[in-house]
Amino acid sequence: MRLCCAGVTPEVVDNALRLDAQFIDYALLAVYFVVVLGIGLLARRQVSSSIDFFLSGRSLPAWVTGLAFISANLGAVEIIGMSANGAQYGLPTMHYFWVGAVPAMLFLGVVMMPFYYGSKVRSVPEFMLRRFGTPAHLVNALSFALAQILIAGINLFLLGSIVEALLGWPLWVSLIVAAAIVLAYTTLGGLSAAIYNEVLQFFVIVAALLPLTIAGLYKVGGWEGLKEKVTAGPGGAEQLSTWPGSDLSGFTNSFLSVVGIVFGLGFVLSFGYWTTNFVEVQRALASKDMSAARRTPIIGAFPKMFIPFIVVIPGMVAAVTVSEMVQTKAGKAPADITYNDAILLLMRDLLPNGLLGVAITGLLAAFMAGMAANISAFNTVFSYDLWQTYVVKDRDDDYYLRVGRVITVVATVGAIGTAVLASGYSNLMDYLQQLFSFFNAPLFATFILGMFWKRMTPTAGWVGLVTGTASAVAIFVLSENDVISLEGQGASFLAAGVAFVADIVVSVLVTLVTRPKPDSELRGLVYSLTPKEDRTEHREGADAVWWRSTPVLAGIAAVLVVALNVVFA
Question: Which regions span the lipid bilayer (predicted)?
Answer without folding.
Answer: 23-43, 63-84, 96-117, 138-163, 169-188, 200-218, 255-276, 297-320, 355-382, 403-425, 431-453, 460-479, 491-513, 545-568
